[in-house]
Design brief:
single chain; alpha+beta; Phosphatase 2c, domain 1; six-stranded antiparallel sheet; globular; disordered C terminus
Length: 527
């Protein structure tokens, strides 16, 4: 099965609340992924006499949602429960006692889940990252296990950030190698893209090694910051679907700008998720925003500028539609790309024109209520030829994937040969060929991308290449959108240099596919 949908699921789960002198909002979206594997926790006022404490967390599941969903409902009780060291004794505990209690809670829940029958028998092989913040009256405890991330905005800039646990990090790589594993293509044994997680018991069965010495460790890193009443503005917790396309600084700037024009934290979180989708995120997306007393307040000046910006964009959309001339009304993609080339003032920092996609779309459809959308966030509409091309392409790529991961031999050769022959019969320069060129950037959204999934490729074949991993980029950068129309960047914003996607899978042209077919051994032949 493919790892991505034909078009993203944009319905959101949102919530908000307040208490203990803070407000919070959250939002999550399935996006392009086939399944929603994220989960979250938001608790204001904790039991065991910790009524002035609060806890928030985001869990990013992989290979299923079982572990993420269980942790969202039970991690806190394992941290607070009996046997969690000095933390269980209440507010009088010292900072180190709290940190020890958090670590103990993670190890306990990981060991407890191992006893679940589906996980024990290998019927479910899911795992999950976890990032959270525990707020006491005097401290912020940042908790991280995996590559989700927490960021504190203090005095208008990034005041603290957790560090991602990647297999190529020196400390993580040393532990993996000491456990008899290796790091290939920046993954544990060439498969798992994170070096710490809850669950993932296939990577936690090395004899003679403790739970924190396995290929994948459930131990969190806990950082502590004393609270600054005036300077602390907000904390953002988010999965890598957000950080793939926004840096720490960009997200802080964007959230600050949204808080100055809107006091509804659900809407602010929804804006973050929508903007990341339009920036090219292909993963599930979840974000929790915790606003502290020093958070920015709505500004009349900021609201006025926002209204002027929206009006300017709407006017430009109307002008572009009226200037179509003999070519007719331009499609939505043409309008978006045209606006993106302009120097538009006062775009939201960190979000750019991508954060205004909804304004462009709303005005476009208002002026063209009966026009089919072409090349929007979803798939392009088309007739029988477009559908036939898509079906042929899907057959080809699925056959290639099966051959690549060693799951099929002769069984895959027939559909592959048929698809190649069908592609060869197309006239050179046909519309389908042009569409295929436009779709070159989409191939990671096809079944072939499943050969190297986000966190959980388990094939011994597709990741067998023994290469030295490349160091990760200094800050996350946008990956290519598997939509036919990735959102262009505006000249008024500076996007970071793109980095190789962690989901990247080998791609094959029709010619290379034919060569692969010619050299594929026939499993029915005699040795």
């Amino acid at each position: 099965m493919g790892a991505f949908l034909d078009k993203p699921k944009t319905e959101k789960h949102s919530a908000h609340g307040d208490g203990n002198g803070l407000r919070y909002g959250l939002s999550s979206m399935q996006g392009w992924r086939v399944e929603m594997e994220d989960a979250h926790t938001a608790v204001v006022g904790l039991p065991h006499g910790l009524t002035d404490w609060s806890f928030f967390a985001v869990y990013d599941g992989h290979a299923g949602s079982r572990v993420a969903n269980y942790c969202s409902g039970h991690l806190l009780e394992h941290i607070l429960g009996a046997g969690s060291g000095d933390f269980a004794s209440g507010p009088g505990s010292g900072v180190e006692g709290v940190k020890d209690g958090i670590r103990s809670g993670f190890l306990k829940i990981d060991e407890y889940m191992r006893s679940f029958s589906d996980l024990r028998q290998g019927l479910d092989r899911s795992g999950s990252t976890a990032v959270g913040v525990l707020l006491s009256p005097g401290h912020l405890y940042f908790i991280n296990c995996g590559d989700s991330r927490a960021v504190l905005c203090r005095d208008g800039r990034v005041g603290y950030s957790t560090q991602d646990h990647k297999p190529c990090n020196p400390r993580e790589k040393e532990r993996i190698q000491n456990a008899g594993g290796s790091v290939m293509i920046q993954r544990v044994n060439g498969s798992l893209a994170v070096s710490r997680a809850l669950g993932d018991y296939d990577y936690k069965c090395v004899d003679g090694k403790g739970p924190t010495e396995q290929l994948v460790s459930p131990e969190p890193e806990v950082g502590v910051m004393e609270r600054a009443a005036d300077g602390d503005e907000f904390v953002v917790l988010a999965c890598d679907g957000i950080w793939d396309v926004m840096s720490n600084e960009e997200l802080c700037e964007f959230v600050r700008s949204r808080l100055q024009v809107c006091d509804d934290l659900e809407k602010v979180c929804n804006a973050v998720v929508d903007t990341c989708l339009h920036k090219g995120s292909r993963d599930n997306m979840s974000v929790v925003l915790v606003c502290l007393p020093g958070a920015p307040k709505v500004s009349e000046e900021a609201v006025r500028k926002e209204e002027e910006l929206d009006k300017f964009i709407e006017t430009r959309v109307e002008e572009l539609l009226q200037s179509g001339g003999d070519d007719g009304v331009p499609d939505l993609v043409t309008v978006v790309r045209s606006i993106a080339t302009e120097n538009i003032p006062n775009l939201p920092p960190g979000g750019g024109l991508a954060s205004k996609r909804s304004v462009i779309e709303a005005m476009y459809h208002k002026l063209n209520p009966h026009r089919e959308e072409e090349g929007g966030v979803g798939e392009k509409t088309g007739g029988a030829q477009s559908k036939e091309k898509g079906a042929t392409r899907a057959v080809l790529l699925e056959a290639l994937r099966q051959i690549h991961v060693g799951q099929a031999g002769q069984d895959a050769r027939s559909p592959l040969a048929y698809a190649l022959a069908n592609m060869a019969r197309r006239p050179e320069g046909s519309d389908d060929d042009a569409a295929a060129e436009d779709d070159d950037d989409d191939e990671e959204g096809t079944p072939f991308a499943d050969a190297v999934d986000d966190h959980s490729c388990r094939s011994p074949v597709c990741c067998s290449e023994d290469r030295e991993p490349q160091p990760p980029a200094a800050s996350p950068a946008p990956s290519s959108l598997p939509s036919p129309t990735p959102f262009p960047s505006s000249s008024a914003t500076t996007e970071p240099e793109p980095k190789p996607s962690r989901d990247a899978a080998p791609t094959t042209t029709a010619a290379a596919a034919a060569d692969l077919l010619d050299h594929q051994p026939d499993p029915s032949a005699s040795p």
